[in-house]
């Protein structure tokens, strides 16, 4: 907008034009000239203040944004650091577990105390070096001959009534019976140590199971599967004990002792299925308690609960001569998993049961009644 028009619009200046020598001259009649310039100065200062305020706001926003970005970067770095620390700790834990498993599988139990002392001396007990230390220890020790691996065991041919024999080690058992060689003994002892009871050669831990050199299957056990003070009493009471209460039920004060003694005599495993959990098994009378069967280990077997029910229902019986378990055809037809147990010998017991106690049930079973 031209200057004269701006001045007219502001209503602070009166103007008129005159012609002089072919030129238009603007004649200004200023009113309140001082106030005009003061207002202009105030407007300029106010505008500059607004500009300065905007600059300050922009700078503050920039500083705040920079601080936020810096804080986010620090938080990300901290999260990454914590994540890396967790992953490192997890990796160390996995490595330690693998090393411990390696030690359990490759260093014999009777050599581990020596390994621990050597590990503390050579590596200062640094668990991060456990795997390397175990491999070095094994290399230093060399592969011990099987005859030097001492774990006393008891054994007899599986499914027979041959008395059990005591051996100083699995190697001694295999050498004296002629059923295996040094390599067989070294591998099979691992199964015996792990399970407590193992069948040779069925439980050979190698992928390609070996054949027993004598052509027989052997049942091998650790000799201390029960407390050493829990001796089995050979005395057999003449008749069952108990007293009848006023309401007609018969109390059985020896039931727990009977159950514990049968459990000990059967090495804590079901003699048919091999189950070891006490919740899955219970003591079964060979001659029923209601038929004057005695509460004595020689009159009992440790059976899985389902086998015990079949045994009491005469749908399962044990041959007194062979000690092999048999099931009725209808039971085998209904439950095919029992076919794998049909005709198998029961597991070895610490002391032989009284096979004569099996005859009554066997006669009922074979008669089909």
Automatic annotation (TrEMBL):
It is an enzyme of class 3 (hydrolase). Residues 271-319 form the HNH nuclease domain. One of its GO terms (molecular function) is endonuclease activity. The keyword Hydrolase applies. The keyword Transcription does not apply. Keywords: Endonuclease, Hydrolase, Nuclease. Transmembrane segments: none annotated. Its EC number is 3.1.-.-. This is HNH endonuclease signature motif containing protein.
């Amino acid at each position: 907008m031209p200057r004269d028009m701006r001045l007219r619009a502001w209503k602070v200046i009166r103007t008129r034009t005159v012609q002089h020598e072919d030129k238009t001259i603007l004649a200004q009649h200023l009113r309140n000239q001082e106030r005009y310039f003061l207002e202009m100065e105030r407007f300029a200062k106010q505008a500059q203040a607004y500009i300065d305020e905007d600059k300050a706001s922009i700078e503050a926003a920039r500083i705040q944004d920079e601080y936020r970005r810096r804080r986010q970067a620090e938080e990300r770095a901290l999260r990454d650091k914590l994540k890396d620390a967790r992953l490192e700790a997890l990796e160390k834990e996995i490595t330690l577990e693998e090393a411990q498993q390696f030690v359990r599988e490759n260093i014999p139990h009777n050599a581990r105390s020596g390994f621990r002392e050597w590990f503390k001396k050579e590596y200062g007990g640094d668990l991060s070096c456990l795997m390397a230390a175990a491999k070095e220890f094994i290399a230093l020790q060399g592969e011990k001959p099987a005859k030097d691996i001492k774990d006393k065991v008891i054994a007899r041919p599986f499914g027979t009534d041959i008395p059990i024999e005591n051996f100083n080690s699995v190697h001694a058992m295999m050498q004296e019976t002629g059923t295996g060689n040094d390599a067989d003994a070294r591998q099979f002892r691992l199964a015996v140590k792990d399970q407590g009871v193992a069948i040779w050669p069925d439980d050979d831990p190698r992928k390609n199971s070996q054949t027993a050199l004598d052509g027989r299957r052997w049942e091998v056990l650790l000799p201390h599967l029960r407390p050493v003070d829990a001796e089995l009493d050979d005395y057999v009471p003449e008749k069952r004990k108990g007293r009848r209460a006023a309401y007609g039920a018969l109390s059985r004060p020896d039931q727990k002792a009977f159950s514990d003694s049968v459990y000990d005599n059967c090495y804590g495993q079901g003699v048919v299925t091999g189950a070891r959990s006490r919740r899955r098994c219970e003591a079964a009378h060979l001659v029923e308690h209601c038929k004057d069967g005695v509460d004595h280990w020689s009159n009992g077997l440790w059976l899985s609960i389902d086998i015990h029910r079949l045994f009491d229902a005469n749908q399962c019986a044990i041959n007194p001569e062979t000690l092999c378990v048999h099931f009725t055809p209808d039971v085998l037809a209904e439950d095919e998993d029992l076919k794998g147990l049909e005709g198998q010998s029961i597991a070895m017991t610490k002391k032989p049961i009284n096979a004569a106690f099996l005859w009554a049930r066997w006669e009922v079973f074979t008669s089909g009644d």
